[in-house]
Amino acid sequence: MACWIWYFGDLELYHSCRMHMRRDEFDYHFPPFWRLDDAHKNVVFRKEFVLENAGTIRVHANGRGMLEVDGRRYPYDGREIALDEGRHVIEAKLMSEEVPLLFVKGAVESDETWDVSCYDGRWVKAGANWFFREADKCPVKFPFIYKELQPASVEACTDGVLYDFGRESFGPVTLADTAEDTCVWYGESREEALSPEAILQQRIPAGGECRLPARAFRYIRVSREVGIRAENELLPLRRRGKFSCSDVRLNRIWDVAHHTFHLCSREFFLDGIKRDRWVWSGDAYQSYLINRYCFNDREIMRRTILALRGRDPVPSHINTILDYSFFWIMSLEEYHLMIDDTEFLRRVWPLAVSLMDYCLARRDENGFAANEGNGWIFVDWAEMDKEYAVCAEQMLLLRALEAMAHLAAVVGEDSSRYLREFNGLRGRIDEFFWDEEKGAYIDSYASGKRNVTRHANIFALLFGYAGKKRERILRNVLLNDAVPAIRTPYFKFYELDALCDAGETDEVLRRIREYWGSMVDGGATSIWEEYSPDEPMEAQYGMYGDKFGKSLCHAWGASPIYLLGRWFMGVKPTSPGYRTFEVRPQAADLDWFEGTVPVGPWLGEVHIRVQGGVCTVCATVDGGTLYWQGREYPLEKRVPICVGEA
Amino acid sequence: MACWIWYFGDLELYHSCRMHMRRDEFDYHFPPFWRLDDAHKNVVFRKEFVLENAGTIRVHANGRGMLEVDGRRYPYDGREIALDEGRHVIEAKLMSEEVPLLFVKGAVESDETWDVSCYDGRWVKAGANWFFREADKCPVKFPFIYKELQPASVEACTDGVLYDFGRESFGPVTLADTAEDTCVWYGESREEALSPEAILQQRIPAGGECRLPARAFRYIRVSREVGIRAENELLPLRRRGKFSCSDVRLNRIWDVAHHTFHLCSREFFLDGIKRDRWVWSGDAYQSYLINRYCFNDREIMRRTILALRGRDPVPSHINTILDYSFFWIMSLEEYHLMIDDTEFLRRVWPLAVSLMDYCLARRDENGFAANEGNGWIFVDWAEMDKEYAVCAEQMLLLRALEAMAHLAAVVGEDSSRYLREFNGLRGRIDEFFWDEEKGAYIDSYASGKRNVTRHANIFALLFGYAGKKRERILRNVLLNDAVPAIRTPYFKFYELDALCDAGETDEVLRRIREYWGSMVDGGATSIWEEYSPDEPMEAQYGMYGDKFGKSLCHAWGASPIYLLGRWFMGVKPTSPGYRTFEVRPQAADLDWFEGTVPVGPWLGEVHIRVQGGVCTVCATVDGGTLYWQGREYPLEKRVPICVGEA
User: Fold this and answer.
1) Per residue, what are the HEC states of A322-363?
2) Any chain A CB within 8 A of the CB of B123?
3) Which among A557, A570, A433, A443 is positioned nearest to A503, based on CA atoms?
4) How many residue pairs bridge chain A and chain B with CB atoms within 8 Å of each other?
5) ipTM greater than 0.90
6) Could you read off the pLDDT of B39-64 as tens digits, one per residue?
7) pLDDT(A600) > 90
8) pTM attached to this predicted model
9) Fewer CB within a 10 Å sphere, N or C end of chain B?
10) Chain B interface, mutation test: which of A7, A119, A140, A275, most B Cβ atoms within 10 Å?
11) Chain B within 8 Å of A23 (Cβ-Cβ)?
């Protein structure tokens, strides 16, 4: 099937580069503080093939150049070109200031079997994507869908007119005319739209109709009466995961989380839609996990992985953050588990190796990823003793090494180096960071403070590195109120994941209700970047020194989708691509729940309903095993199973 | 003095990338078959400074982002920003889909002392150029000058109207209206413009006024009567070199060569203006030498050097041609001799090292740059035995190694490696390629044919590697009609240079008259890519399989400017930047000549007049030495000297 093709990785870099240039605040733009790679501008595509019958082709391109069919030259004008039966060679020489893209349809069709070169002496297989299959829909324009939004209310206000569109949205606003200078203020909250300190605002000089760039808003304030049209710009994604239960609040949380997550799922998995609209590796890693339980979309995952990594040589840690390099490597393993796409892994393997080389080359004398000129040690927005080597980073490095060893085996490369590094580091972490007296991992050994936070301990549990220390860590840290609470949804993701893994599902439901529940009770139509249930919502719009700096629609807040899918519906792949998977439902304190979880890349689904002690499960694919009340039940394709006692 | 600044090398890459996308032929575009690097899209400029007095600045940019002055953020809107006296820091974060460019004017000004980073963990000094000093003339648009051309004649012809603009030109043609579909054919010759096989032609669909892309032409044919306006688009370059003499034909050659050379001197030194309009390293090397004697412009030289080299890692030989990598390295030495700009050399030194590493890594078991998967062995458009290692390539590698050793010393790096390689290779060349019986270097030892062409022998003489073999080579090869003649102006450059060096100035004048003289006698208004005095001009428009494929305006044809300046006016720098230079006039068979040669980068000039045995010289700078009739005369600034006997 014909699809648009490009130099492998380049369409992703092109869109990433353009998208990262769009962040604006107040009257300036805000560039990312890391290198943005762009697409190659001059490439050549090549295909040799044999036709059994004569036929014709039509060739379209983004860019210009010459199409050579058996040595004869054509422009890229979509004309019909006749081909006899027999052997043919097409060389499509193509250059573009954007990104060279090719589409061939007919007797031979463009797809990922074509070769492409950027004239560096190497041919690689083209990048391609079933998403882009129409000649007249060139992927240089990202194919969002648009839907006009109707305001829920319009009111006159001081300095203009205020529109409330009822819930968090993202898209372009069009002013019918700009006969006079006009100002537009965007608000994720009413207070923001009414304030001159709204993060997103634009002054439009007098002129004709004006369509503003797509931005995040629930509220729009316009400085004068003028017709406006607001549209929602959305990535067409199929909502495959579903969940409902006896707790209507939890249902509301699921819906709001899903809305949040869809808004943040665009060219790539973004952090949030007001700002930064950037791709962050740590945020993206959580999005991959959430994606499993709602869209199960492989394409956005591939796009995000490629965009984040950029080209060699490695210019800095991913997003300049040490932890985010490790998450990128871990992402590949998650991708493999979800998709089972060894071919893609083979293609990005050299990028993984060079990134891990970059990380390993920057270790200290004890073999730790330390804080000396080594990028930003983020971990979380939290108080933490970050002097020199930080334990949470070593946990992530350890996990990334384990992932490299595993991936090496998958792609048929030598894994012994990574295993050796893994084993060495694992011992050194315990030696330097484990505090036997506190029964917990400390943040830093260099400072002498022996401070304990939750982060490294959560990772130790979650990644399975705690061993016999498991119970002590749980008791001394995760279930110990004396250890400062996690405040960001970002790290709550890992904390609740670890608690679920430890069987604390009731506690997790309680925390979800407390944190997310109080957010949706307060009227949030999307999940916030950070939130404190103890403060009034309107008192916590600020962040990063700006009165309305906080993002009120942040992907990492959508973790309930993951938690409910992974631990309550209980579905997870147990071999790559869901060739096998388990369904281990847990009702916790819920009277009933039912839902659907996508399984595998090819539109498989598993439906689960639990009520009382009875569990009903049906999968559209083979490979599942249901675990219920201590027993296993193999799932057969499309054969419902109903087990348990009420 | 404020000037526009950019990431070092990026403005050159940006314009090179765009320019190389413009070649068109018939109805398609013709992409280069090598990698085109583009500018970084996201960079940050930085300057710390202390103001003695309070002041203001205005900041302009190509691109968008945020300007941080002492931590406060501004858009790039050129507003006045006040600065107190004392210490300040400006960080200008800037992204562009084209090339990020910054201009700061006022209390502190943008120049090459600013730092810039593409977020790869390194700061480098900014690229800057006195050429771009005005806020409203952003160098993203290359600052050509335009002059309307008046047709010398207009005539009706079959299928349209033919305009003759009197001489070779380059620029945009504007059609007053395109009420109907219109076709435009360009011709460097009348025959080409009248032919449907004109290389440059465009069909314009019906519409309004239409300005076509700048192209080469002397003749324009339009398919129907419609007002056209043709403009000449030219780089503003000061015509500093002058020459006139008692031979009016030679004067005409100088003028036509100068016109040719100016047309081909644009964003960079191009090969020709009809096609390819590409930058070729071998062609550019000759342009650098010609440039010495007419424009003496350092900026176009720097631009060309940077554009040709591109970024690391080396993707292929320069222009994919083995010889052209060597010429690039040699260019740096020529640049240094002409400009004395150690700072620039230091900046490109790593690029020279990696290119030479690339060349050395691809040698064969005898240490020769051989023909195995090693790019295109060009040397010249000539019959030559190119089996395996080719002698001319080794001569160039030897010369490039010598240049590297010299440049290493200039920039304070270790030259021993290059000297060692040089000495080893020099011996091996004689061992493998010198034929004692023929008294000449052979093309190839591998084939067993022991074929002799002029090329390697010319290089041996020219680069001073012939030693005691000098006279034999001259007699057996260069002055031996049995050895096939050089046919391209490209290689005639080196041949005539070598003959001049051997004292054969009368012979060189004879050959210039024969070859170039017959071209201008035939009515050429620019020098051709290739030419045979023995055939009618209208029979030799073809090349590369196209009836009008030959470029009739080709920079490498402008060598008489170099030859007359270097060997007849006799001026050459004897230390970098013309701190010292020699003037060694030779009248040969001319009754008289006079001229001006630029000396040094800072608008120095030396005026020379020779008539009979009397030589009059005056230089506007110190450092010159006149050699006349076996004696030396030191030249004092602005003190005319008149020596010799009539």
Assistant:
1) HHHHHHHHHHHHHHHHHHCCHHHHHHHHHHHHHHHHHHHHCE
2) no
3) A570
4) 127
5) yes
6) 999 999 999 999 999 999 999 999 99
7) no
8) 0.96
9) C
10) A119
11) no
